[in-house]
Amino acid sequence: MRKILITGGAGFIGSHFVDALAAAFPDCRIVVFDKMTYAADIRYLAPLIETGQTQLVVGDICDYELCRKLVHGCDLVVHAAAESHVDRSFYSSMLFTQTNALGTHTIMEACRNAKAPRIIHISTDEVYGEVLSGECDESGEMNPTNPYSASKAAAEMIVNGYRHSFKLPVIVVRANNVYGIRQFPEKLIPRCIMSLIDGEKIPLHGDGNNVRHYLAAPDFAAALVLLVNKGVINEIYNIGSKEEHRNRDIAQMICEQFNTTFEDSVKFVKDRPFNDRRYSISWDKIADLGWKPKHNLPKNIPMIVDWYRKNAETIRNRQEIHT
Ligand SMILES: NC(=O)c1ccc[n+]([C@@H]2O[C@H](COP(=O)([O-])OP(=O)(O)OC[C@H]3O[C@@H](n4cnc5c(N)ncnc54)[C@H](O)[C@@H]3O)[C@@H](O)[C@H]2O)c1
């Protein structure tokens, strides 16, 4: 492997992917292609930019000419760039369709043109929609319920068209809610942490009983590296964990880190226009390749809180500019 292109590599999950790919393929050049939206931070890539293993190209995945240039000569393209926050998708849904659907189309077309030999498209368990009981395997139907998940499902449909019509060698991954350091504080865990650091109450949607499965970003990145080596082209892989928590349980865990109580530090706020109560996927297929999650959310919370405390000022400045 000589050259990897990773879109969205300066964002939360993308930067964890970059770290894992750089460690797994130390002789490989990693090009990060990122628009540097509010969710991105060049500091996440700084150590690898300094060593020269990683290079950042700032640009938009909807720019076909740039995509074409960057995809050229790549041994692997990991497509992670997206507008990723469900709440934002309710009030700027067309941006989500543009970035997630048209952007994916543009990258796929560039990959077709350049005959990219291996592409990994990052999708989400949210494309299955609400799963109130049991779990969905990769053959489950897509039933997205909000503008974000609809745009991710649309992206997958485009990828599917390219896989069938042009034999584009793509692997699709659908992951659970991912958590870890570097996540912008619009998502639940960093939002709880930053609220308490700033002496504010945690705003919790609805009654806080919605449940999500939580996958650690380094576990997701390890799954990606495994799929680079062992993933079967044209296949879809669910990637998940067994850690299912209600939103209110997450808030409770974080309150404990700040020696405060749920009752004193949480306020309930208006729910989303539609809020899936539960997602659930089975991930036996990737487990059969030899992957399983190593991290545990309750054990990781103190480390994550510590990271946000140390980076609070930077994060707060970014929040002030972008919210
Ligand atoms: N966060 C989760 O829990 C989760 C779960 C499953 C799947 N995913 C998927 O994983 C991927 C990464 O998610 P994340 O949470 O790291 O998101 P993020 O919002 O933290 O990062 C997204 C990155 O994409 C970049 N980007 C946005 N629009 C772009 C454009 N037009 N051109 C180039 N770059 C652009 C941003 O600058 C940012 O660096 C997304 O595809 C998302 O749908 C996320």
Describe the structure.
- The structure is a single chain.
- The chain is of the alpha/beta class.
- The chain has two domains: 3-179 and 217-239, 3-Layer(aba) Sandwich (Rossmann fold); 188-211 and 243-274 and 295-322, UDP-galactose 4-epimerase, domain 1 (Alpha-Beta Complex).
- Helix content is 44%, strand content 17%.
- It contains 13 helices and twelve strands.
- The protein has helices at 12-24, 46-51, 64-71, 86-91, 93-114, 147-165, 188-197, 217-230, 247-257, 262-265, 284-287, 297-310, 312-322; strands at 3-7, 29-34, 54-58, 76-79, 119-124, 170-175, 177-179, 202-205, 211-216, 236-239, 244-246, 266-269.
- The strands form three sheets. A seven-stranded parallel beta sheet has the order 3-2-1-4-5-6-10, sandwiched between helices. It has a three-stranded mixed beta sheet with strand order 7-9-11.
- Strand 1 (3-7), helix 1 and strand 2 (29-34) form a beta-alpha-beta unit.
- Helix 1 (12-24) packs across helix 8.
- The longest helix is centred in the N-terminal third of the chain and has 22 residues, at 93-114.
- The protein is globular and about 55 Å long.
- The N and C termini lie far apart (40 Å).
- The model has no long low-confidence stretch (mean pLDDT 96).
- Nicotinamide-adenine-dinucleotide is lined by residues 7-8, 10-14, 34-37, 39-40, 60-62, 80-84, 99, 103, 122, 124, 152, 175, 177-178, 184.
